[in-house]
Design goal:
There is one protein chain. The protein is of the alpha+beta class. It folds into two domains: about 5-40, no CATH class; about 45-175, Alpha-Beta Complex (Nucleoside Triphosphate Pyrophosphohydrolase), CATH 3.90.79.10. The protein has three helices and twelve strands. The protein has helices at about 85-95, 150-155, 165-175, and strands at about 5-15, 20-30, 35-40, 45-50, 55-65, 70-75, 75-80, 100, 105-110, 120-125, 130, 145. The strands form four sheets. It has a four-stranded mixed sheet. It has a three-stranded antiparallel sheet with strand order 1-2-3, with no helix packed on it. The chain has a three-stranded antiparallel sheet with strand order 6-5-12. Its cofactor is Mg(2+). Pfam families: NUDIX. This is ADP-ribose pyrophosphatase.
C-alpha cells in the first residue's frame, strides 16, 4: 500500500479567535512535492437529539451569519476547555431549550469538514425531558420549536434543515421507526 501521509514541514498560526484558530501548514506530499493546507482548529461540539413525551423533536431556529439565513437545528454548542462531553450536552440542551433530562446517551461522533477542519461533533439522544428554563448566552438569539417526524422531513425538503447534525438527527429518527 502506498504511504498517503502528508508530513508537516512548517506550521504557522495566522488567527486565534474565540471559537476557532486558523493555521497554515506546509506539507510534503506522498510524491515528494510540497503544498499548503489551511486548517481550522476547533475545540469540538456536542448536539442533542431530544424528543418530548409526545415524540416531537426539539429544534431551535437561529440566524446563521455565514449562510445569511435562518436554520432549524437540534440544540448544540461548543465544548469548553476540559469539559466532559455529557456535561456539555446537558448544558447546551438546558441553555438553548430550557429542557433538562433524566438520562442521555451517546449516539455517534463525526468530523464535520475533515478537508479543512478538525471539528469533531458528538451527538447525544434523550427522550426523558423535564421542562425548565432557558439560559441563552448574551449573544445568542433563537426560537424553540417542537416538530413531529413528518414536519421535520418537510423542513428538510424545504431546505430549512440543511446542517449535517440536524440532517443526521432526522435520519436517525426515521431509522428508529
Amino acid at each position: 500500500m502506498t504511504d498517503l501521509v502528508e508530513k508537516t514541514l512548517h506550521s504557522k498560526t495566522i488567527f486565534e479567535g474565540k471559537v476557532i484558530d486558523l493555521r497554515v501548514d506546509t506539507v510534503e506530499l506522498p510524491n515528494g512535492e510540497t503544498s499548503t493546507r489551511e486548517i481550522v482548529k476547533h475545540p469540538g461540539a456536542v448536539a442533542v437529539i431530544a424528543l418530548t413525551d409526545e415524540g416531537k423533536l426539539v429544534l431551535v431556529q437561529q440566524y446563521r451569519k455565514p449562510l445569511e439565513k435562518l436554520l432549524f437545528e437540534i440544540p448544540a454548542g461548543k465544548l469548553d476547555p476540559g469539559e466532559a462531553l455529557e456535561t456539555c450536552a446537558l448544558r447546551e440542551l438546558e441553555e438553548e431549550t430550557g429542557y433538562r433530562c433524566r438520562s442521555i446517551e451517546h449516539v455517534v461522533s463525526f468530523y464535520t469538514s475533515p478537508g479543512f477542519s478538525d471539528e469533531l461533533i458528538h451527538i447525544y439522544f434523550t427522550d426523558t425531558l423535564i421542562r425548565g428554563e432557558r439560559h441563552l448566552d448574551e449573544d445568542e438569539f433563537l426560537e424553540n420549536y417542537e416538530v413531529d417526524l413528518q414536519e421535520a422531513l418537510q423542513l428538510l425538503k424545504e431546505k430549512k434543515i440543511d446542517d449535517a447534525k440536524t440532517v443526521y438527527a432526522v435520519q436517525y429518527l426515521q431509522m428508529q421507526q
